Amino acid sequence: xxxxxxxxxxxxxxxxxxxxxxxxxxxxxxxxxxxxxxxxxxxxxxxxxxxxxxxxxxxxxxxxxxxxxxxxxxxxxxxxxxxxxxxxxxxxxxxxxxxxxxxxxxxxxxxxxxxxxxxxxxxxxxxxxxxxxxxxxxxxxxxxxxxxxxxxxxxxxxxxxxxxxxxxxxxxxxxxxxxxxxxxxxxxxxxxxxxxxxxxxxxxxxxxxxxxxxxxxxxxxxxxxxxxxxxxxxxxxxxxxxxxxxxxxxxxxxxxxxxxxxxxxxxxxxxxxxxxxxxxxxxxxxxxxxxxxxxxxxxxxxxxxxxxxxxxxxxxxxxxxxxxxxxxxxxxxxxxxxxxxxxxxxxxxxxxxxxxxxxxxxxxxxxxxxxxxxxxxxxxxxxxxxxxxxxxxxxxxxxxxxxxxxxxxxxxxxxxxxxxxxxxxxxxxxxxxxxxxxxxxxxxxxxxxxxxxxxxxxxxxxxxxxxxxxxxxxxxxxxxxxxxxx
Length: 486
Description:
Distance between the termini: 105 Å
Strand content: 5-15%
Helix content: over 70%
Largest sheet: 2 strands, antiparallel
Radius of gyration: 34 Å
Number of strands: 2
Number of helices: 16
Order of helices and strands: HHHHHHHHHHHHHHHHEE
Shape: elongated
Structural class: mainly alpha
């Protein structure tokens, strides 16, 4: 028993120096840890500014607007005119100055109109309440505040009001309640409402002037670039998918593709989550004045339509991406039969999307894209004909399911790309994109007809059936090869 007690005492004496030593090491490491955190914060701050230098400019613009409205508090002549209510101008700048011009104008105009309307209704309610006498006045004011607050809050559930005027409704409830309730105790209620409206207009005006005229950031331009970039990301995936799925090297042989630089297979994922950003930018773009080539009543709603179709296409790319990593056993003969048509569908759709991206980015009519869409449709026809000619009696159905699924998804993508092209063409017409004409030496555009070449086996002889459609295709300069189509 005594021996065990001695051992416990010895262990406790050994643990105490160990705890002290750990505390000492921790204190010694504190300066180094603090230095590492400071360096990490500095690197993150530098990266944040380098990713988008406009963030730095926006911070300076907010400081400039706040410095300007602060003069109403610093200078005695201005302070005498507004008094303590000048603080509302500073508060207005803080809450309404946003990154883009559209967002700033949206909040400023909402705040201005809501303050004006709520102030007027508050004064009217105060005047009506005074007719009910000293005892009836607070009851009438309480009922009126309840009704207006309840009705305004319910209106926020309407999608249109929620998207465009939600901030204005909040300011309306706040201002109406302040004017109505404070009017019961304050005698100079009209002067109070006037000063509040004036300071809000001053703060909002300062924000709008700085936002529009000092390095403006346009929400419409950001939306325009985002739509073009998303189309380009889809195009990069489709242009490289064929080689990645069928493992084609530069020499044309089937082999393992180098693992380096496969970022194009992941870039489309950002498109899947772009809905909220696009809707927000489109909403703010409607508040912006004419700028650049974006005229009044620019069809921003059609950009949302393109974005929806782009995401639908991206979901199909998500399904295709899973097959690039699949280890399922496949039927090599069936894969060789459909390889050319599948690669052509993927490649031509990628070229079409890239052409659409360039057309949106440069704001020119996307006429050349028709050529690539028709080529992709030809590839679909060829695939269907080969599928009909393929004998599946001696084929394991389970082994051809992956390749058949990939081909089916690619056919859906062809249809989706065609819808995107129609939407972009609709935007180009309503937004008055620049036209680009391709002319031959005779001064006429080169027109070719789309044809599908289908091999048919009849006995020992090989025949070819050529189906010529009535669709005329305008070829861009780089694809004007009279032997490419018939």
